[in-house]
Every structure is written in C-alpha cells, then in structure tokens.
Write a structure and sequence with these properties.
Layout lengths: L6 H6 L7 H34 L2 E8 L5 H12 L1 H7 L4 H19 L7 E5 L8 H7 L4 E5 L26 H6 L10 H7 L2 H13 L20 E2 L4 H7 L11 H18 L1 H9 L15 H4 L8 H6 L3 E2 L2 E7 L11 E7 L18 E7 L15 H14 L7 E7 L1 H9 L18 H19 L6 E5 L5 H26 L1
Parallel strand pairs: 1-7, 1-8, 4-5, 8-9, 9-10
Antiparallel strand pairs: 2-3, 6-7
Bound molecules: guanosine-5'-triphosphate and magnesium ion (MG).
Length: 506
C-alpha cells in the first residue's frame, strides 16, 4: 500500500488548498501537541524509573510464642512510623485493660483454685491474726492449706516447672504459712477483695466481645492455663479497625472498662501489694512480673480515667498472634538513603500449631530476625509443658539455619529478654540446673549470655548449608533506649542484603 493509499496518511495530510495563515496555525497546534506528548512520555518514563528504583525490603520475624516478634515489629513502627504508632496508642488501652484483668484473675484463682477439693485445712503454728489468703482458700480463718495426699500439686499458672521439681516446696514450710497472716490490713479480707473485684469479670467479657470477632472460634483464651490458651486476635488491623470505629477513637476519655478498672484500682493494688499474696505466688512459682502483659506495678497510673498508654506500655502489652501477617510501611522518618524504601515485615504466630504457616514466607525474603528468649531457660512452653523453652528455641534455630530455602538469607539473632535473664540470674536461679553443659561456670549475666551466644553461633556455623553472615544481639526489645540502635543496625544490614540480592538478580 503506497502512502497515497494509506487512509491515516491521507487524514493527516494537510489540506491541498491550505492558506499560509492556516498552515501557520496548524503547525502551531502540531508543535503544542508534540510538546504535550513529549511531556507525557517523560512522565511515564520517570514513573517507571521510580518504580524500578523503589526498594521493597522483606523481613521475616521468627521465634517461639512470647519470644518478642510482635514487640520487635512494634519497635520498627515506633521508630520509623512514629505518627501512626502514636495515633494507635489509645487503641492498645483495651489490650492493657485485658492484660490487667487477666493478671488479677490468675492471682485470685491461684489463691482460690476452681477445684477446691485439692485444698484441705491443716493446723497452723504461730499465727497471730487470720490470713485473708487462707480464709479464702479454706473458708475459715486460722487454718493453713495443704494438698490432698496424692494430688500432683500441679500448678496451672506457673510456667517455671520444667525440670525444677515444681511445687516441691509448696506448703512445705509451716512458718511461711504463718507469715502470710501478718500482711493485709486488719479490716480487709481476701473474700472482701474478691467481691470488690467481681466487676472485672464483666470487664473481661466486654473486652473480649470488643476485640475478638464474633466468628472467632476460641475467643476466650486464658494465659497460663494447662492448654496454654490465651486471648488472641488475628494479625492485621481488624481489631484496631473495630476499635477505631468506637466513638472514643482519638480521645483518652474513659470508657466502661476503664471506669470499672478505676473503681477497682485500690482493691487491685491491695491484693497485689499484699506480702501474703506474694508469698503464695512465690511458693507456687508464679512470677507474674516476668510474664507477658504485666502492669500490676503500674496500677495507679494505668487505671486513671484518662489513661493513655505510653510507648513503653504499648511495647509491654501482650496480644498473642495467630496466623501470619505482612505489615507494609514506608519510613516516615528519613533514615538517610533509606527514604522511599518500602518495608514489608512478616509477623507470624510462634506457638507450635502456628509454625506450619511459616514456610510459604521463606520465599523472597531479604533477612530473618530470629528471636530466642533466653530468659526462658527455666520455663516450659505454654502449649507443651514437657518442652523447655530454651530447648525449643535451640531446635527451632537449628531448623531455620539448616533450611535450604533460607540458605542465602542472612540471619539476625536476637537473644531476647535479657532484662529478665539478668534479674533471674541475680535472684539466684542457676542456669546449670537446666543446662547441664554449663557446669560450674559463673552464674552471671555476662558469662551466661556469652555462653548461649556461642552455642547459637556454633549451630549457625554447623547447620547453614552455605557460609553466610551472622549477626547476634543481646536484646530486651521492650526497652526503647537500647533497642533503637540495634534496630538501626538491622535496618542497614537488611538494606545492604537487599541491594546485594538485587544486583545478583539484575
Ligand atoms: N521484659 C521483657 N518483656 C518482653 C521482651 N520482649 C517481649 N516481651 C514481652 O513479652 C510478651 C510477648 O511478646 P510478643 O512480642 O507478643 O511475642 P510473640 O513472639 O509475638 O508471640 P506470639 O504472637 O505468641 O508468637 C509481650 O508482653 C512483650 O511485651 C523483653 O525483651 N523483655
Ligand atoms: Mg506475636
């Protein structure tokens, strides 16, 4: 087909009888159209270039349940999207309320187990005044408690029973029983406190109804129960979304649970501060202070009607993750050359039943942060009370190191909960009692953390399919001051790894 026959060419050809004026006008219009077209082309090109340049970094958080994965994610959010983090703080109040209610419930049920048949009175020596604790347990003052012979002395809430002869010392020292009678103010009985704290039951039901979608199968999970059940929400923003629809979204004004907590504040403080109660908890090896979501030392502050959670409170709150979720964000805070990087952090549920969901996320990951909560050396898993937490972490670490899908992924190890580890060792708990190979080395934080770091590092060397970099940090991810620097190092390392991978792919 000749140009003369081409209909498009014919349509575009200037008219044969075009005057000079018409021709000038036409050429001006065509020039304008060319400029517009060139501008559009340049815009498209720039967009493509920007998209290509836009780095998407994927980071996977792994570790057993309660190892601190979600807390680490919250640290990233606090550091790099502070506005969003701050805006969401008020939403965490409901979780903190639930954490408090649960702690109080654990105390009350420990003092007065639902199955009262395992408690029988026995005569006490040297008691001057009735013990509120014992009154609740026995229904009568002036008597101590003991276990029915043959009862295993099982402690449903204590998590520290692994290999430690749990409860072997429970009720073994009659003087301890005598000492429990001295503490509560004369006019306060435990029964009275329990009555005063009854409204917390309603608060618990209210909070669960608010936080857990109606179609969730197991909405009422309780920490520390033998089956390890605990309140959870699916990851993502649904629970936050549900809360944000409530009228008090941006405000700190009181809601019903907060009002109830406020009215129960004195009773809760009396219960928690009672040395007799503490003594019973101690003997039952229930260390709420070291457990997740512990706010009982802050009751006065966190039960104020207009309480707004601080950054530290949000990091300390406990909400179990079930499922896997990817949180995408761009750093609000300029982090040097990292501006514009899109971060995708995958947070998984760490309990045994959740681990099958991890593998699909091993593909296309830039780095893994593995959290090993080394303070758990004397604890058992909530979901399997025959498994020591440290041992479980070591087995998981071996599995991650040896996984072929992850052979080229750099691993970052957080030996986490070092704050708790230090306190625990200082209080006299011996690592060698649980880790025989530790033998008679010094039971200090420095010696223990160095030893465990060496063990994890050796596993990495031995089990990794290919040599790769290994970064290990002793962390307390709830601590805002120390964690910032560590997270910045991880950020730089992850971005470097990402660039390296991009070059390999290019
Ligand atoms: N004291 C202390 N508490 C910590 C530390 N890391 C985490 N926690 C607390 O431990 C609890 C559990 O942490 P999470 O981040 O929810 O644990 P997780 O690994 O996400 O657990 P799952 O969602 O069950 O897999 C939370 O209440 C945290 O505040 C730490 O280093 N020190
Ligand atoms: Mg979690």
């Amino acid at each position: 087909m000749s140009p003369a026959e081409d209909p498009l060419d014919a349509a575009l050809r200037p008219p044969p009888d075009e005057t000079l004026e018409e021709r000038a006008l036409r050429e001006e219009r065509e020039e304008h159209a060319r400029r517009v077209s060139a501008a559009i082309d340049a815009e498209i090109k720039a967009e493509r270039l920007a998209r290509r340049k836009k780095r998407i970094v994927r980071l996977l958080l792994l570790g057993q349940s309660e190892s601190g994965k979600s807390t680490t994610l919250r640290q990233f959010q606090r550091l790099y999207t502070p506005t969003a983090f701050r805006e969401e703080r008020v939403l965490w109040r409901a979780i903190i309320q639930l954490n408090i209610v649960r702690s109080i419930r654990i105390i009350l049920e420990t003092l007065s187990p639902p199955d009262q048949t395992t408690i029988v009175p026995r005569p006490r020596r040297g008691s001057a005044a009735p013990s509120a604790v014992m009154m609740l347990a026995n229904g009568s003052p002036g008597a101590s408690t003991d276990r029915v012979p043959g009862s295993p002395g099982h402690n449903p809430y204590g998590e520290y029973s692994y290999n430690s002869g749990v409860d072997s010392d429970v009720d073994s020292d009659p003087e301890q029983h005598a000492s429990t009678s001295r503490f509560m103010p004369n006019n306060v009985t435990l029964e009275g406190l329990r009555m005063a704290l009854l409204p917390l039951r309603h608060v618990e039901a209210l909070l669960i109804a608010r936080l857990v979608p109606a179609n969730e199968e197991e909405p009422t999970h309780l920490p520390g129960q033998p089956d390890g059940r605990e309140i959870f929400v699916r990851p993502g923003n649904q629970w936050k979304g549900a809360r944000s629809k409530s009228p008090d979204r941006e405000s700190t004004r009181s809601d019903e649970p907060q009002e109830v907590l406020h009215s129960c504040s004195t009773a809760m403080q009396t219960l928690w501060n009672d040395p007799g109660v503490r003594e019973v908890l101690r003997r039952r090896k229930i260390r709420l202070e070291e457990g997740p979501g512990f706010f009982l030392n802050d009751l006065e502050r966190v039960t104020l009607p207009n309480y707004l959670p601080t950054d530290a409170d949000v990091l300390r709150a406990r909400l179990k993750t079930v499922g896997v979720s990817e949180y995408t964000f761009e750093m609000e805070v300029s982090a040097g050359r990292e501006t514009g990087t899109e971060w995708r952090i995958v947070d998984v549920g760490g309990s045994r039943s959740q681990r099958a969901t991890w593998v699909p996320f091993f593909d296309d990951v830039d780095a893994i942060i593995f959290l090993a909560p080394i303070a758990g050396f004397d604890q058992v898993l909530a979901e399997d009370r025959t498994m020591n937490r440290l041992e479980d972490s070591v087995l998981l670490w071996k599995a991650v190191c040896s996984n072929k899908l992850l052979a080229n992924v750099d691993l970052v190890l957080f030996l986490n909960k070092c704050d708790i580890l230090e306190r625990k060792l200082n209080s006299g708990v011996k690592l060698s009692r649980y880790v025989r190979s530790y033998a008679d080395r010094e039971n200090t934080f420095d010696a223990v953390s160095q030893y465990l770091r060496g063990k994890f590092s050796a596993i990495h060397r031995e089990y990794s399919p290919n040599p790769r970099k290994f970064y290990a940090f002793c962390t307390s991810v709830t601590d805002t001051t120390t964690t910032g620097g560590i997270i910045a190092s991880v950020r730089d390392m992850v971005v470097r790894q990402h660039l390296k991978q991009s070059k390999l792919l290019a």
